[in-house]
Request: fold
Amino acid sequence: MDADGIHRALREKFAGAVDPDWVAGEWPIVTVGSASVAEVCRLLRDEPALGFDCLSNLSGVDRKDDDRIEVWYHLLSYRHRHQVALRTTTPRLDPVLPTVSHLWPIANWLERECWDLLGVRFVDHPDLRRLLMPEDWVGHPLRKDFVEPDEYHGISTRRESLLKL
Amino acid sequence: MSHAIDIDLHREGPGGLETEEMTLNMGPQHPSTHGVLRFVVKADGEVMRRAIPDIGYLHRSIEKIAEKVGYHGFMPYTDRVDYVSAMQCNQGWAMACEKLAGIEVPRRGEYCRVIASEFGRIASHLISVGATGMDMGAITPFTHAIREREYINDILEELCGARLTFNYMRIGGCAWDLPPGFAKRAIAYLDRFEPLIDEYDELISFNKIYVERLANVAPITAERAISWNLVGPNLRGSGVRYDVRRDVPYSAYPEFEFDVPVGTGERGTLGDCYDRYMVRMREIRQSCRILRQALEGIPAGPVVAKVPRTFKPAPGAVHVRVEASRGDMGWFAVSDGTAFPVRVHIRTGSYAAMAAIEELSKGLMIADLVAVIASLDIVAPEVDR
Reply:
């Protein structure tokens, strides 16, 4: 199915949640309301003509100037060889999104990573723990206003610049 | 005073046989885990209930670094994403930047990239198949594989001066042209190397003990492989004929003829550890085939396009994919028009493979966990980034 068809199929079911505009490209970009992400994804996966059987990537972006966090879902269909990127935003103060880990198992880790590094809370995720950072780490390092702590368990994170010598 | 052993073997629980689940720790420093990674193994005797991967030991916040050092400056860091086959990481980042800024790479530059990438793929697959052998208790094949990889490192060193972290590619092409006589020497090497693949096959691929350690172990159906987002040889091992080089053509790959080998379940079940291993062996041959075509048909011209030193691509987001040695590597880059990317996200092949292990390990023997890790070709730094 071409990008226009995918967009139209989504608009038919989710007129209120799917943005009327979409951006063409190798990964056509469709903007979706944050509350409907899981239902839109379910349709994309289960509707035979759409058949998105693979979540290729899930990335969060901190848009500090706009006070929101953007999350991208890059979806692939091996069956139909087409692809789409879903873009959604959530407030920076309390970023919340529905989980899609019940649709694609890989989302379990990708969402944990997104929580770990950007602090996006995925509702109904079975095991939302930190993935890459230590469990007792404070803060979410990929936030633009994240300040690196001076030390971690007594280990200093500061070092004299070698260029000064 | 010694404790009297007073166990009623006919009874379970306190005073009788202990039947509760055992929690074992594998790693973070374990010789067969190919880097620093850890599994918490819940075992019932010799059988695993599950093996829970615990990652992050090699997290170097490479994506955060990208936001600090800018587009050109990030290139050497991409080598460290997957240091076993760094060339394709270079290429992924270069392609992401080129797509953001709409830069066309000269054809000779694309050929140089293909040559570098395919040598990198052979080297990486050699490590993988050699290490699989070693994990299964066959030490000799590993030394053979490492020997050939050293020669390939020599070739790549001629190309860019480094043996492991190449920093060879640039936004818009490659840093250096092929040195004089390179193509001739590289083809001479391939002439020597290709018969050796048969030797490896004789040494391990068809060795009965080796086959029995891998065949029928942890088969993955095509459907599961896709939903777990397994990529590259792990996906093709399950019989899915999908290769980014062929299906989403990039660089100069459409100009070359090559096959995409897939698993067939020849020694056991479709998608078992042996199929994944065999796909890699066959891909080495295909890489040689691509290399011969590229080395013989390399066009004249510049290797790098003119790219401004202060690189400020237009605002936008791109997601490009390259077929790295461990499969489809996704590079997501967001620009806001400044000299520093807003966000870079690298989705690697080992990441998905690592995430799949928890499900995959259910009901396997503990000894087979090593076979699973080896056959999925997990490189820990690529998982943690």
